[in-house]
């Protein structure tokens, strides 16, 4: 009996020890499994962050998953990332909130944003991030943050004006219930108008909404600090999104690999021709189509247009055929790459034939990039225009065939970057010379000499901005020649 009890006791102890051992192994297995899951989760998260932040942060790092990269990592010392220094916030008594709705295309809205930031600063109000035009001809649904780096816009200007992404909740609720005073400011107004007419409305309603904000601040006669702030917003605060900038750098790199390039802003799209009423070189069917389009848009007020008269007055964009003659007359190298910064050219290959014959190296973003590169930009005309803007800034020569908003703003930005060569065509003189050449009145040498002479001083070199009191539409646009901001290269670099 004693032996039996002793055996049973030993068996019981053995069972207990086996149970404890099994539990320990189970705990160890669970710890190992949990650790493995956590490690793989960290790896997946780091990989995702690398895709999202690259190439600024992670894509420049050597990979730790290959022997070769591990060896390279031993020889490479990564520079320490410098923390971003933000300007101090400006402290001021807030007079209210300013909401703005921009109108037009990308560069029309860009200039309006610069003006509205300046006005908000002058009135000591808080600016709500501007709303972009979604109802114009282009019907682009892009928001501000789809085109511009929103956080950079807000933080880089915090020493001048407070900018919010949206109204405070109480005021936002009032606006959503329709309690909002909205109006378009008067065009080409000076600061006294905003102090005497606009500020009292802000103080009264606390929130004021300004719509149709293009060309609402006068070109000339403004204090120097106001003009410099307009430039600061334009050249420093309004930075495109990283996605747009990276794709722009890719296009520029592809062009540079094959030598110098010229950007031709060939403003010969259907909407431009319908709006302006210019139909030189179009057949009868095209003339009818353009006329129908002009009548279809009620805000295009001018309906009956004499195309021949507008062309002779220099108010029409040059045709592709006229452009080819002009570039040849200016002795532009026929082997240079010409990047077409424009939408679809009206008349297609038929109208582009003469230009392609004279300059066979014609390229567009659609021919340089893969369809996958542009898939996120399709049906977003402002984002496509932003890409053309970046390429235009970096080109060896910039040639606009019409003095629209993009031509003017790019011209001014290229002046700011060191008076880069921009050939500013005198269309009124050119069409007269072209007609004389085509009619045999001038031979080629006479025509070419006259074109060169007319444009010798129209290459984007330093010049005085033309001011015409009481006729602001006829004077030089501030953003095409912001001379108050065009100091030396060293001065510009030190201010950035």
UniProtKB/TrEMBL annotation:
Residues 477-496 are annotated as: Disordered. It is a single-pass type II membrane protein. GO terms for molecular function: glycosyltransferase activity. InterPro entries: FucosylTrfase_pln, GDP-Fuc_O-FucTrfase. It comes from the Eukaryota. Pathway: Glycan metabolism. Keywords: Carbohydrate metabolism, Fucose metabolism, Glycoprotein, Glycosyltransferase, Membrane, Signal-anchor, Transferase, Transmembrane, Transmembrane helix. GO terms for cellular component: cytoplasm; membrane. Belongs to the glycosyltransferase GT106 family. This is O-fucosyltransferase family protein. It comes from Acacia crassicarpa.
